[in-house]
Design a protein that fits this description.
The complex is a heterodimer of chains A (about 325) and B (about 500).
Chain A (H helix, E strand, L loop, with lengths): L2 H31 L5 E7 L7 E2 L2 E5 L3 E8 L4 E5 L4 E6 L4 E7 L4 E6 L12 E7 L15 H4 L20 H11 L15 H9 L9 H13 L4 H19 L23 H4 L4 H10 L15 H11 L8
Parallel strand pairs in A: 1-4, 3-9
Antiparallel strand pairs in A: 1-2, 4-7, 5-6, 5-8, 8-9
Helix pairs in contact in A: 3-5, 4-5, 6-9, 8-9
Chain B lengths: L6 E2 L4 H8 L2 H23 L8 H22 L2 H5 L4 H8 L10 H4 L6 H6 L18 H9 L17 H12 L1 H4 L3 H21 L4 H6 L1 H9 L5 E5 L2 H6 L4 H4 E2 L2 E2 L21 H5 L5 E5 L14 H22 L3 H7 L4 H33 L7 H9 L2 H20 L2 H7 L24 H26 L4 H27 L1
Antiparallel strand pairs in B: 1-5, 2-5, 3-4
Helix pairs in contact in B: 2-3, 2-11, 3-21, 3-22, 5-11, 9-13, 9-17, 17-19, 17-20, 17-21, 17-24, 18-19, 19-20, 19-24, 21-23, 21-24, 23-24
Classes of the chains: A alpha+beta (about 325), B mainly alpha (about 500).
Chain lengths: ~325, ~500
């Protein structure tokens, strides 16, 4: 073999053998070595009907600094871990999105896609297990039964209201009525949310002191009372959660006309229907969010939303019935 | 003696020396091999998202654009010079990468002097003292039993398949599944790997480059459209070849190998099957081979060599340009779904439509056009099949321009993906050159129609001119040629209008 032939062969072997080896060595040996003490986990996302998350279960130790490298293999996905405050934002196809967090709490958490990706978007969930190697405890201690169950509340029963407003009541107008009409007797707002607006309206209607108020004024008063059960910060949080997680099916304006709704077994509830909303209570909506729709297609959010998030979301739902601005 | 209107590039001493270097083709192939290996690896192991995968972007956008917009129209088969697909097989076959094998046939055998055999180039072995041509029919198999110096069984390609029908079918096969291949990196990786393995396997069984000559779907249309290109490789003086006994250009010598494309340069009149490998430039002891620049499209006016398989290649390329424009660029989402194999029954319907247009409708319409042209042009003395085949070469300029127009649309719009992909070829989150985050940016997309229209018009005019010259070639008088041209011109104009309608709305 001549020298030129030998050199030519070396070059070709470098291209055909050495080059691929270098690529894989760079990806699987060099790069991981640069991560340091961070535990790096690759997570691949596909639409649920093509596999969803891979892997579906991630296990880390309590105290681990974790970097999730998120790859979308088809469409734009989102990523968040429920009850952990981790949200990676959109994951664009073909690009890697990294999110870092510290697994400082042992337990089982749900990670999920929070960008509408397919008709089966809500099935796109996985489990993050944070194991405490000291306590050998993986799971969250068993909680008591939900209070709605304890109270025997049938959250699937229809709740059409006997009394409901004809037009959207205004909390701003209601504030003036509250000051004017209830100067001496200002009821507390405690427990208000556990009653339906229809029920509260009926109670107020029977008050002789409020006899001079029209039904519309009385509904404005109810709207004002409801507005005092939440705060602007919670409303803002509720709005953000609604728009990201609920609007695809329930619609931007709560009309039950979201584009994802047509893929569900039952038409999504419309929150702008006064007769239905006025008959509901915080307890009912809270329970439905936690439990899900039981065969209707509505996913369960109990493992994902914190109590504060659920309260904020419920508080926001009332803005479809009442105007707070 | 040079042909008129030709500029011999190899008069330049530096260029000639460069082309005669044994390492010349290797030096072109190795960088392409690098990209080829990367394309296969990214196709097989990279992200399935096509816009972020090197295999899709650099094969179907960058490489395709370079080939169809620049290389083929200007330099014919220049891509074949550097194509890495046959390289492994050829290197194995020759047992060498850059040197001429010490045991090439030119060394071990004496070249016979029968002028008939040169053209057919049978496996010839002569005893040392013999001078007469001895063709040993079993020689081929005898050669296959290890007597050949090359690492190949050296079988000859079956005579019945020595045409481009298989290339036509191969191209149709790839084109039919193009909505899948062009968008799925894995499909691209598998296809490329399959090509190189097939070429390698064939090199070990058959002589020379049978994959390139008879099977490669890309080579089929490059060869057809290379007839338009101004670059050619020809003998300087055919008389020199006629009197020269050696035939080193075909059989090889100490300086190099016989033509891998199984072409005898002395008879070469068209670019169609010359792969510009430059072996003949190295081996010709008479310095009788030159690389020339010549006017565009001269090969289309060469009557010798026109065949039905090449005609069908012209129909297929024109039809596919039209179908691609409809399916891939058109607003009919349901058609894209059919082509994308969303449902098998719909894909089969699409396949029937696709193949029907390619193999029946377009050739059928052109057949009627030819029939009419024959009648009104007073060419009834010309066999209909002859005229059909000859006139089909008039489709070549328009077909090429249609492909250029089609390619312009997606190159300008999607070319920016190359910037991000070069930094992250696998879609693994790399950023080698800092451009991984470069956003998709359509470049000058508003000007694309202003490029497409003149390109198509140019193709139309060139095609009409070729049709006119073909009519004249058959002895048609001036008036007859013009009358005979009208049906063909109407056909060509109709096709052009269809393209314009698709691109301009």
């Amino acid at each position: 073999m001549t020298k030129s032939e030998f050199l030519a062969l070396l070059v070709v072997l470098a291209v055909v053998i050495l080059f691929p080896l270098t690529i894989f060595a760079y990806q699987y040996l060099y790069l991981p070595a640069t991560y340091g003490p961070v535990k790096v986990i690759n997570l691949w996302a596909r639409v649920p009907q093509a596999g969803g998350w891979a892997p579906e279960v991630i296990t880390v130790h309590k105290g681990d600094r974790v970097r999730l490298r998120l790859h979308s293999q088809d469409v734009v996905h989102g990523f968040a871990i429920g009850k952990m405050g981790v949200d990676a934002g959109p994951i664009y196809p073909g690009q890697v999105t990294a999110v870092d967090f510290v697994a400082d709490q042992a337990g089982r958490f749900t990670y999920y896609c929070n960008v509408w990706c397919s008709p089966y978007h809500y099935r796109m969930r996985g489990i993050l297990e944070v194991v405490d190697p000291v306590a050998s405890q993986t799971f969250i201690a068993e909680e008591g039964r939900p209070q709605e169950v304890e109270a025997g509340l049938d959250i699937d029963a229809p709740h059409e209201a006997e009394f409901y407003p004809m037009a959207k009541p205004s909390a701003v107008r209601g504030a003036g009525i509250y000051v004017r009409a209830l100067q001496d007797r200002r009821p507390t707002f405690e427990g208000l949310g556990e009653r339906s607006p229809s029920d509260v309206f009926y109670t107020l209607r029977r008050e002789q002191a409020l006899g001079s108020l029209s039904d519309e004024e009385l509904w404005d008063l109810v709207a004002y009372l409801w507005s005092q059960t939440t705060t602007p910060e919670r409303l803002s949080l509720g709005r953000a959660l609604y728009e990201k997680n609920c609007a695809p099916c329930h619609g931007q304006t709560g009309g039950g006309d979201g584009p994802g709704g047509r893929y569900q077994k039952k038409e999504p509830a419309a929150f702008d229907q006064a007769q239905t909303m006025a008959g509901g209570t915080n307890a009912i909506y809270r329970a439905k969010i936690v439990r899900g729709g039981m065969g209707t297609g509505m996913p369960y959010w109990g493992p994902i939303f914190t109590d504060e998030e659920i309260e904020s979301l419920v508080g926001y739902l009332w803005t479809f019935l009442f105007s707070y601005e | 003696m040079s042909q008129p209107l030709r500029l011999e590039l190899t008069r330049n001493i530096f260029l000639k020396r460069l082309l005669r270097q044994r390492a010349f083709q290797w030096a072109l192939m190795v960088p392409m091999l690098f990209f080829f290996v990367l394309a296969i690896l990214t196709g097989l192991f990279g992200t399935p998202v096509g816009s972020r995968n090197f295999a899709i972007i650099f094969v179907w956008i960058v490489w395709w654009a370079l080939v169809i917009i620049l290389m083929v129209p200007l330099a014919g088969r220049l891509w074949c010079t550097m194509c890495p697909i046959p390289a492994p097989g050829e290197w194995l076959q020759r047992r060498a990468l850059v040197t001429a094998s010490a045991r090439s046939p030119g060394k071990r055998t004496q070249l016979n002097r029968c002028s008939r055999c040169y053209a057919r180039a049978r496996c010839v072995r002569l005893p040392p003292t013999a001078t007469t041509c001895v063709e040993l029919e079993p020689a081929a198999s005898a050669c296959g039993k290890g007597r050949r110096a090359l690492l190949t069984l050296g079988r000859r390609w079956p005579r019945r398949l020595r045409n481009i029908w298989l290339q036509n079918l191969a191209f149709l096969g790839v084109a039919l599944f193009s909505a899948i291949i062009l968008t799925r990196p894995l499909a691209t990786g598998v296809i490329l790997l399959a090509f190189v393995l097939l070429a390698l396997g064939l090199s070990l069984v058959y002589e020379r480059r049978v994959f390139c000559r008879y099977l490669c779907p890309v080579g089929g249309f490059i060869g057809l459209y290379a007839m338009v290109a101004p670059l050619e490789l020809r003998v300087k003086d055919p008389e020199v070849c006629r009197h020269h006994q050696g035939r080193e250009c075909y059989l090889g010598s100490e300086e190099g190998y016989g033509c891998p494309w199984m072409v005898f340069p002395g008879h070469l009149e068209r670019n169609t099957y010359c792969g510009l490998c430059t072996e003949c430039l190295k081996t010709c002891p008479q310095d009788n081979i030159a690389l020339n620049l010549r006017p565009f499209g001269l090969d289309l006016l060469v009557p010798r060599g026109r065949r039905l398989d090449e005609s069908y290649k012209a129909f297929i390329m024109l039809a596919c340009a039209l179908l691609y424009s409809v399916v891939l660029l058109g607003p009919w989402g349901w058609l894209k779904d059919w082509a994308n194999l969303v449902a098998l029954d719909r894909f089969l319907a699409y396949a029937a439509l696709f193949l029907g247009v390619n193999l029946v409708l377009v050739p059928g319409l052109f057949f009627l056009t030819t029939l009419l042209a024959r009648t009104v042009g007073g060419l009834k003395h010309i066999p209909l099949r002859r005229l059909f085949v000859d006139y089909s070469y008039a489709l070549v300029p328009l077909g090429l321009m249609a492909w250029i127009a089609f390619s312009l649309s997606f190159v300008f719009v999607n070319g920016s993906y190359a910037v991000s992909v070069i930094s992250d070829p696998f879609g693994w989150g790399w950023d080698l050159f800092g451009t991984a985050g470069y956003p998709w940016t359509p470049y000058l997309s508003q000007f694309v129609p202003y490029l497409q229209v003149p390109v198509l018009i140019l193709g139309l005019l060139a095609s009409i001119y070729v049709a006119y010259r073909i009519a004249q070639e058959h002895g048609a008088q001036e008036g007859q040629a013009v009358r005979g041209l009208i049906p063909v011109a109407v056909f060509l104009t109709g096709v052009t209008l269809a393209f314009l309608r698709l691109y301009l709305g």
